Amino acid sequence: MPKSVVIPPGTGKPLAPYVPGTLADGVLYVSGTLAFDRDNNVVHVGDAAAQTRHVLETIKGVVETAGGTMEDVVFNHIFLKDWADYGAINGIYAEYFPGEKPARYCIQCGLVKPDALVEIASIAHLGRPA
Questions:
Q1: How many alpha carbons fall within 13 Å on the CB side of residue 43?
Q2: How far is CA 129 from CA 25, 73, 97, 102, 121, in A?
Q3: How high is the mean pLDDT of the chain?
Q4: How far apart are the C-alpha atoms of 95 and 116, rounded to whole Å?
Q5: DSSP per residue over the chain, as a string?
Q6: What region does 2 belong to: left with phi over 0, alpha with psi -120 to 50, or beta?
Q7: What pLDDT does 129 receive?
Q8: In angstroms, what CA-CA distances link 75 with 20, 27, 30, 33?
Q9: CA dist 40 to 44, 61, 113, 120, 130, Å?
Q10: 8 A C-beta contact, residue 122 and residue 30
């Protein structure tokens, strides 16, 4: 199966061996995304809403680089550090998915850096092969 790597312009070096996105058979898989700057430092420390917006903007950049829009996102995997941030995360999330919502799940867990409050991975169906 042909596949292609999707790396938006200006993307920093990943923290581990992965790419921001992979497109295969018209399906875009967006790696778990945290609120990192280009040097992998957490931004918006202590602010779950701002971190969520940063994460979703980063995901949007991957989706758009692959030729899609956020309306093409069909599934989100959401990881949060503390259930106390659930409302703030959902408030921002709703801004990025105002119409029909993608399927999703949300779990509480530890994240790769202590100041990270939310991580999201996405799947978008672009409807065309890589």
A1: 16
A2: 4, 16, 24, 21, 21
A3: 95
A4: 21
A5: --EEEE--TTPPPPSSS--SEEEETTEEEEEEE-SB-TTSPBPSTT-HHHHHHHHHHHHHHHHHHTT--GGGEEEEEEEES-GGGHHHHHHHHHHHS-SSPPEEEEEE---SSTT--EEEEEEEE-SS--
A6: beta
A7: 54
A8: 16, 11, 10, 14
A9: 13, 17, 10, 16, 28
A10: yes
Q: What amino acid is encoded at 14 in this protein? A: P
CATH of 3-125 given 3.30.230.10, 1.10.600.10, 2.40.30.10, 3.30.1330.40:
3.30.1330.40
Distance CA 94, CA 74 (A): 14
Domain chopping of the chain, boundaries: 3-125
Q: For 35-48, write each residue's pLDDT tens digit.
A: 999 999 999 999 99
